[in-house]
Known about the structure:
By secondary structure, the chain is of the alpha/beta class. The chain has helices spanning 25-37, 52-64, 78-88, 104-111, 115-130, 148-161, 177-190, 210-219, 241-250, 252-255, 266-277, 298-306, 334-343, 351-367, 373-381, 428-440, 484-500; strands at 6-9, 42-46, 69-75, 94-101, 136-141, 165-170, 198-203, 224-227, 326-328, 371-372, 391-399, 407-414, 417-424, 445-453, 462-470, 473-481. The chain has 17 helices and 16 strands. Strands 1-2-3-4-5-6-7-8 form an eight-stranded parallel β-barrel, surrounded by eight helices. Strands 11-12-13 form a three-stranded antiparallel β-sheet. The longest helix is centred in the C-terminal third of the chain and has 17 residues, at 351-367.
Amino acid sequence: MNDQLIIFDTTLRDGEQSPGASMTRDEKLRIARQLERMKVDVIEAGFAAASNGDFEAVRAVAEAIKDSRICSLARANENDIRRAGEAIRPAAQSRIHTFIATSPIHMEKKLRMSPDEVVEAAVKAIGWAREYTDDVEFSAEDAGRSEIDFLCRIFEQVIKAGATTINVPDTVGYNIPEQFAATIRTLIERVPNSDKVIWSVHCHNDLGLAVANSLAAVRAGARQVECTINGLGERAGNASLEEVVMAVRTRKDVYQCDTRIDTTHIVPASKLVSGITGFPVQPNKAIVGANAFAHESGIHQDGVLKHRETYEIMRAEDVGWTANKLVMGKHSGRNAFRSRLLELGVVIESEEQLNSAFARFKALADKKHEIFDEDLQALMSDDSSEPKEHFRLVSSAFHSETGESPCARVTLSVGGREEKVESSGSGPVDAAFKAIESIASSGAELLLYSVNAITTGTDAQGEVTVRLSKDGRVVNGQGADTDIIVASAKAYLNALNKLQSNTERLNPQV
Ligand code: KIV
Ligand code: ZN
């Protein structure tokens, strides 16, 4: 049996379907580059027909990424498939992933199509997709609640039409491991030419079983797992990439296969996705939670000190946990700065971008003695001082004193014109947001505000996420600074700038 397990990452598509996790084109590019560095085999970059913004994002990822295959999702209709085909055209390696629902409840109540019509639509879809690429994946949406005979029938037909990967999604997270494994085994046994395609699974986590179901399917012969960083995804999320990858690597004796993933990039990927989406990682989350390798009890600490494997089945450094690495200080030069960014995989697009980042680095080094990799990454994500931004923080002052009402004085550049305002609030952050709102008058609703220390120490930068909602659009803004009130103001302005940009999403039903 083939011993490579293909890792198909759908953080940028299914992950983005988590309410509040929408990402800009540039954020998707940053995540895609990290996935490529990790050696993810297939990156599902989005759903090109969903909106112009989604199309542009898929295309940008297809242009930028060379070492992973780039895929776009498409419903089984001609328009979706042609949009997907156009979006992935620049990719060095491409895939179209088309799907249609196959469960009785979805066919009857949602699609209002007969089983014959569903088979016909699926077969036609594969034909259109093959005009663009010879790597075509077919998904039977809600396969987890579909009849096995019907699945065998539709899979036989789409393989005949040219599908190369057959994906079996547990769309609503209803399956349990033994049952799901039996489904995969039966399909591989019964579908003609099953040995000519890769069998894939896509499990949702509604019962907390997404990873267990995916792994059970691997034991039954599946050789592609669809997953996301931090288990992000629709409702309770998808199978988490880091858990699937580390389970297979740690228990090769059981799974008899392995992935190509460079696991040392896992923790940076988790932090990147968490920072961009504003979805914190729970401390006790396997692999990437802050406590995943922390030993609290004396007995455990004693055991680990005597012999690490007494209580550890994986090494923290193998998944990318490193002690904060001191990289630079205020005397570091421009060349050292540029090469460290390159080593971190940060792409600098122009001399102006480098100059502006270097100026920000010097300003940070004046405030903070030791600059770590995490600081550099936050610095590069922070475009709040870019002149192209509609709203930009020019200067600020905050006052907070026992018995006094906290107040904020803020000067903003709005489309290049400076405006000054002073506001009070229940705390300095509240005062800062009120001051900004009194200039911007966005009327947006604040859905989330969270602060995280990027590194350790009281001089660490605070990284703030602000989630705003307006007219049905939800955006996340980020800001980092050694002063958390300034970081908060930057995050709020970053979110306002995203609302300002006109990337409408149509959000079709998936
Ligand atoms: O959950 C699901 O069924 C999906 C498909 C589009 C693969 O996301
Ligand atoms: Zn899904």
